[in-house]
Amino acid sequence: MPGMSGPELQERLLALGSRLDVHLMSALDDAHVRERAFAAGARAWFNKPVDTDALLAAVAGTRAERHRAE
C-alpha cells in the first residue's frame, strides 16, 4: 500500500473511533509489526501468500463473535 502500512492505517482508523475488525495480510513476516498490529486490536495476521480457507474462517469467526455480542 503506497505511503502507509496496514498497521499505520489501522492506528489512524482507531484514532478516528473506527470499530472495524482488522485482519492484516503482509509479505513481510516482521514480529515487531505483527505485535504492534495485535496491540492495536488486529483480529488476525496472515503472511502472503494467504491461505484462503484460514482467512475466510477468521472473518467468519469474527462475524460470529460480533453477532453473539449483539
Instruction: Please tell me how large the radius of gyration is.
Output: 13 Å
| Helix content, binned percent | 40-55%
Side by side, the strands of the main sheet go: 1-2
**Using DSSP, what is the number of strands?**
2
| Beginning-to-end CA distance, first to last residue | 33 Å
For the biggest sheet, the summary is:
2 strands, parallel
What is the 3D form?
globular
- Compute the average pLDDT: 89
Number of helices: 3
Brief rundown of the structure:
The chain has helices at residues 6-15, 31-39, 52-69; strands at residues 23-26, 44-47. With 70 residues, it is mainly α. The chain has one domain.
Keywords:
11% strand, globular, mainly alpha
Structure description:
The structure is a single chain. This protein is mainly α. The chain has one domain. 53% of the residues lie in helices and 11% in strands. The chain contains 3 helices and 2 strands. It has helices at residues 6-15, 31-39, 52-69; strands at residues 23-26, 44-47. The protein has a two-stranded parallel sheet. Helix 2 (31-39) links the parallel strand 1 and strand 2 (44-47). The longest helix is centred in the last third of the chain and has 18 residues, at 52-69. The radius of gyration is 13 Å and the shape is globular. It starts with 5 loop residues before the first helix and ends with a helix. The mean pLDDT is 89.
What does the secondary structure layout of this molecule look like, with pairings?
Blueprint: H1 6-15, E1 23-26, H2 31-39, E2 44-47, H3 52-69
Helix pairs in contact: 1-2
